[in-house]
Amino acid sequence: MPKLSYQKALNRALADAMTADETVFVLGEDVRVAASNVTAGLHKRFGDDRVLDTPLSEQGFTSFATGAAIAGMRPVIEFQIPALLFLSFEQITNHAHKFSLMTGGQCTVPVTYVVPGSGSRTGWAGQHSDHPYSLFAHVGVKTVVPATPADAYGLLRSAIADPDPVVVFAPSAALGVREDLDFGTLAPVSLGSGRIHRHGTDVTVVAVGHHVHDAVAVADDLADSVSVEVFDPRTLYPFDWDGLTESVSRTGRLVVIDDSNRMCGLAGEVIATISERVRLAAPPARVTRPDGAVLPFSLELDRSVQPSRAQLADAVAIAVKERP
Amino acid sequence: MTASTVDIAVSLYRTVRLIRRFEERALELVRSGDIVGGIHPCIGQEAVPAGVCAALGQDDLVTGTHRGHGHVLAKGADPARMMAELTGRVTGLNKGRGGSMHAADFGVGVLGANAIVGAAGAIATGAAWARQRLGTPVVAATFFGDGAVNEGMLLETFNLAALWRVPVVFVCENNGWATTMRVDDAVAGSITGRAEAFGIPASTVDGQDAAAVLAATREAVARARAGGGPSFLECRTQRFEAHHTFEHAVRLRYRTDEELALIRARDPLDIQGARLDAAVRADVDSEIEDVLGHAVEFALASEFPDPLTALDHLYASGLRPRPGSGV
Ligand SMILES: Cc1ncc(C[n+]2csc(CCOP(=O)(O)OP(=O)(O)O)c2C)c(N)n1
What number of CA atoms fall less than 13 Å from residue A39's CA on the CB side? Predict the structure, then answer.
């Protein structure tokens, strides 16, 4: 079977969406030559009108896209680096996100924001290494973090087709992931549906984005002693609470690995919600970035503030210690 | 004057009068507590929306500001549904979800008042660009105050609109004040100079004269329709009232009584009214009284929305958010 890379999957999703719907267009910085590779070939295929290189004016072009969306188009913005989401946070959360409600349903704002290369890029230091998906889930903007090429394809297709703004985080550490698959099976993946990557009976590990691959690896390593189920929410907002509740109801234990800062991060919400719904057999645990993390440059420092496989293995070991 | 110039003069006066009396009735409703949260009255500035919107067609688009009642009314929204919106009723333009600062009526091309200073220009620009791409070109006029010309995002927008020759008219309502800050203390260089720096044709207009605003906007709209891209109008106007009605309770001292008298000396209502026959003017006045009498009655007789529907429309997809309590 042919191999598909995560990056190529995003590219394919964009091309397929643009072919299927004339109102879809891409804008961003250096998207014509495809500096990020995600928009490779699109300019040649779809032309100037549908692939726009923007000046470095993130706030301006983010709201420009909002305007284009309320007038009937489906813009896809590529943000070159995750920090651009901080710069355009107001435009996304205070305008694009609020227009449907504030106008009493008079308009829809179908904009997709894609960040190919979120989280640590290894050696890019403090201002290029954030992974701010919890912020968007918090404000209620639809938030997607695919882990695999097939999901990257399917979730991006659904994000573009959705009538609301959606932020798609493509973790740097996942961009190189490749998957053997029959391209004919690529299909939209509905927003809000999680996926169990590995079945288990002792503990449910919720893993986000690239950490899905870490969780599967840790589960394999521990297979002789613990049966780990790996749950990938895929969409963080809306979250598949029913899917996760079902899993934890079976395993009775919960560990979360999440590349957010600890304070008010996604892991805290997952633990709170599941604790409200399920009587756990052991205290839940989470592996996250520290509170208020700023990624330092030097490689060992950069890695030391990101969730690791070793930390996850420890958390799983503690969670299953008191097996009934 | 020819028949059609008389019609235009009457129509401009009617809009100025409608906005003026709408604001005065709204101020009464603020005082009576029927409008909560107060308003940013645009009394004194009515000629700007009246003149600009008279140069636009029904399909053309506008975005307004926090001081936005005039923009919405001049573009043709129903005053009764607008008043219902201000009083938070389910019959309001936004079903009571927007209020004074977010009133929108997509049916007449009002993409919404926007309460973040300098934010709406990019939205109007994107919408006008999109309509061109979709093969249904229109012109968008976007209003903003003098305070907005120091917002980076608006300057970014001038650049995008000029680069991509978007059919948009940037309308600066320079009323001399951003809340309590004088324009001279806030603007280095000049207001029109900002647009000119991006190659956008800019002119300064007497914003108290609806006919002058109309003439200048016509030129800008013609340029936009001919593919000439954006234009910029600095409309010199005056805010007769408070920045916001909270000032009625908290007296802020930033304009002296003498200064206020000067500010109010050139009233757009009188300037346009003087161009009409006294009898015609009286007819328009009584017509507007009827319209607003009905508007207030309609608003106050309308239902409030059901609290169970508070988060309706949050997601166009129909997604229901989790409630704030319970499991
Ligand atoms: C970005 C932003 N900053 C501050 C405010 C608070 N604020 C609301 S209106 C206003 C003054 C705006 O002045 P101007 O643009 O001149 O318009 P005017 O009120 O005079 O019509 C301020 C500071 C805001 N709403 N948005």
Answer: 30
Tell me which chain B residue has its CA closest to the CA of residue A241: B322
pLDDT in tens, A147-202: 999 999 999 999 999 999 999 999 999 999 999 999 999 999 999 999 999 999 99
Cβ atoms of A297 and A123 closer than 8 Å: yes
pLDDT tens digits, one per residue of A101-142:
999 999 999 999 999 999 999 889 999 999 999 999 999 999
| Co-location of A240 and A130 in the same domain | no
A97, A128, A197, A210: the catalytic one is: A128
Q: Residue A94: which domain range?
A: 3-185
A210 is catalytic: no
The verdict on pTM exceeding 0.95 is: yes
Choose the closest CB to B152 out of A59, A62, A72.
A59
Q: Which atom of ligand 1 is nearest to the CA of B175?
A: 20
Please state the rounded mean pLDDT for residues B52-75. 98
Compute the count of residue pairs across chains A and B with CB atoms less than 8 Å apart: 150
Asked if ipTM goes beyond 0.95, one says yes
- Domain count of the fold of chain A: 2
Whether the Cβ atoms of residue A210 and residue A244 lie closer than 8 Å to each other: no
Write a three-state SS string for B246-297: HHHHCCCCCCCHHHHHHHCCCCHHHHHHCCCCHHHHHHHHHHHHHHHHHHHH
Match domain B3-256+266-304 to its CATH number in 3.40.50.970, 3.40.50.620, 1.10.1240.10, 3.40.50.150. Answer: 3.40.50.970
Q: How far is A103 from chain B (nearest CA, A)?
A: 5
Distance A48 CA to ligand 1 centre (A): 37
Do the chains contact at B104 and A109, CB–CB below 8 Å?
Answer: no
For residue A203, the domain's CATH number is 3.40.50.920
Nearest-CA distance A48 → chain B (Å): 12
Is the CB of B117 inside a 6 Å radius of any atom of ligand 1?
A: yes
